[in-house]
Amino acid sequence: MSRTIAAALLAAVLLIGASSPTRAADCEVVPHTLDEVQHAVHAGSALREALDATAAEVAFVGRIGSDQSKRGILYTHAGLAWRDHPEGRWHFIHLLNHCGSDASELFDDGPVDFFLERPFRYEALVVVPTPELRRALVRRLREGASRRLHEPRYSAIAHPLKTRFQNSNQWLLELVAVALEPEAPLTRDAAQRILRRWQFEPERVRLGFFERVGTHRMGNVSLKDHSRGELRRGGFVYVSVKSLRRFLEDNGLAEQVFELPCEPCRQTSLTTTR
């Protein structure tokens, strides 16, 4: 381990202590293990170096928060990394759900913090927008777009073209939308009108009968903004990291796309017993 990484790891351990990766006071507090902190430091440091190498002002970064492979989904959550963020270099702006509830909040996190939510795997997807889109995103951020587009009512499968709920990737997509048309008002309605004009294609998720029944007991998943006809048409639509990436690539808005594995994390996992 390099001296820089070791110092960052020690600082993270001292800072985090017995903190929980959850984001609300009523969540169960589960201390981070040393391995989890070490993985986050390695992954966050590698991500910071990779972002520096792009010389971009902003970049989209996806992480593997949970195992959704049975649905054909790898990256589950994305945030916007801003090089000159007021809180520090390469801080992330992203929307997080409160402890499985129906509420969300925006957070500004550093690269290490981005991986302290106990992801399923410590890997990242990086999408660097085109220079024009990067400049437009920074301009919109300075206008307060991130807060003005936030809807605190959360659903993991919020309908992409309705404003009743919002999920983390949908918030990010709507930020992209208002950056595409700089004269548009900073409202969700305006963002969704833009997405319709650009013919955004959402992801579809199939839910079995018992899964649909179970949504009535889950605070962070709702079908109230979906129609019954969606199930017959192939599943419930929502914004995934995959559909966000596809939208950017298909419309020529992505300058560079790459994945970032965390090799030290894998090596540590292989040599550590728990």
Mind explaining what this structure looks like?
- There is one protein chain.
- This protein has 274 residues and is an alpha+beta fold.
- The chain has eleven helices and eight strands.
- The chain has helices at 3-16, 34-54, 111-114, 131-142, 145-148, 168-180, 188-197, 209-214, 229-232, 241-250, 263-271, and strands spanning 58-64, 77-85, 88-97, 104-109, 121-129, 203-205, 236-238, 254-260.
- The strands form two sheets. A six-stranded antiparallel beta sheet has the order 4-3-2-1-5-8, with helices on both faces.
- β3 and β4 (104-109) form a beta hairpin.
- α1 crosses α2 (34-54), α4 crosses α6 (168-180) and α6 (168-180) packs across α7 (188-197).
Descriptive labels:
single chain, 274 residues, alpha+beta, 6-stranded antiparallel β-sheet, two-stranded antiparallel ribbon, 8 strands, disordered N terminus, disordered C terminus
Write the layout of secondary structure elements.
Elements: H1 3-16, H2 34-54, E1 58-64, E2 77-85, E3 88-97, E4 104-109, H3 111-114, E5 121-129, H4 131-142, H5 145-148, H6 168-180, H7 188-197, E6 203-205, H8 209-214, H9 229-232, E7 236-238, H10 241-250, E8 254-260, H11 263-271
Antiparallel strand pairs: 1-2, 1-5, 2-3, 3-4, 5-8, 6-7
Helix pairs in contact: 1-2, 2-11, 4-6, 6-7
